[in-house]
Specification:
- The chain is elongated, with a radius of gyration of 20 Å.
- Helix content is 50%, strand content 0%.
- It folds into 2 domains: 3-68, no CATH class; 73-114, no CATH class.
- With 119 residues, the protein is mainly α.
- Helix 3 (29-38) runs antiparallel to helix 4.
C-alpha cells in the first residue's frame, strides 16, 4: 500500500471504511490499521481502540469478508519455475530446488505449462 495512494483513505477510519479498504487492497483490516499507524494518520490510542474492538468481536484471528477475497497467486515464483523449466529442469527437479517434496503438485514454483526438454 504505497503511502501516496493509501494515506488519503486512512483519515477518520471506521469499521465500515476498513471493510471497503480490505476489499479494494486485498489485505487484512489489521494491516490497514498498522499502515495508518505507521503513516502517523492514526494515534496509538485509536489503534488500541480498534484492536480492543476486534478482540471483543473475535476478529483478531478471523476477520469478516476474508473468504470474499480472491486467493493470491504469486507471479514471481511461477515465472522462476517457468524459467527453470525452459532451461530443461523437470517439475520434480524444480520442486526439489525450491525446497518442496518432489511429490507436491501444487507449490508456487510449479511451471505453468509443459515444456519440452532437450535431451
Amino acid at each position: 500500500m504505497p503511502a501516496e495512494s493509501i494515506r488519503p483513505h486512512l483519515r477518520n477510519l471506521t469499521v465500515g471504511r476498513l471493510y471497503d479498504l480490505k476489499r479494494e487492497w486485498g489485505v487484512s483490516m489489521q494491516a490497514i490499521i498498522e499502515r495508518a499507524y505507521h503513516l502517523k494518520v492514526m494515534t496509538p490510542t485509536q489503534r488500541t481502540a480498534f484492536y480492543k474492538r476486534f478482540s471483543a468481536m473475535g476478529w483478531r484471528t478471523t476477520e469478516p469478508i476474508s473468504d470474499e477475497l480472491p486467493r493470491e497467486r504469486p507471479q514471481l515464483a511461477r515465472a522462476i519455475g517457468d524459467t527453470m523449466a525452459a532451461k530443461g529442469l523437470t517439475p520434480a527437479e524444480i520442486a526439489k530446488l525450491a525446497g518442496f517434496p518432489e511429490t507436491v503438485e501444487d507449490h508456487p514454483f510449479r511451471p505453468s505449462g509443459s515444456h519440452l526438454r532437450a535431451v
